[in-house]
Design goal:
3-stranded antiparallel sheet, 112 residues, protein heterodimerization activity, alpha+beta, Trm112, N-terminal domain of TfIIb
């Protein structure tokens, strides 16, 4: 599961009022090369919950993203876009679990 997908998921357990972001319990993660597309990244930037992305990337061992959401001028920097690209599209949770932040319920993730 890519971190792009993770950033769009929330727990929909009945009675949960705050199911986002799901925490990651990483047993195995992999990096899969994806073609770099700066225009896609610029369009996705405003749709991403930055803190959730940074926390998820760090739980997978990737600490190259700034803690605070960068301003839109960073979208002109290839160096920033490549780091954003790697975290968003190339890091994959291969095995582990997604954990509801409110209930602690675990949703297994297995490589398919």
């Amino acid at each position: 599961m890519r971190l792009l997908t993770h950033n769009m998921l929330s727990s929909n357990i009945k009675g949960v009022s705050n199911g986002f972001p799901l925490r990651l319990d990483v047993e195995n993660s992999v990096s899969k090369e994806v073609e770099f597309n700066p225009d896609f990244l610029r369009n996705m930037f405003s749709k991403i919950d930055w803190k959730a992305l940074v926390d998820a990337a760090r739980s997978m061992g990737y600490a190259e993203l700034p803690e605070e959401a960068p301003d839109s001028s960073m979208l002109d920097s290839d160096e920033f876009l490549k780091k954003f690209h790697h975290a968003l599209l190339e890091l994959h949770l291969d095995e582990g679990a997604l954990i509801c932040p409110e209930t602690g319920r675990r949703f297994p993730v297995n490589k398919a």
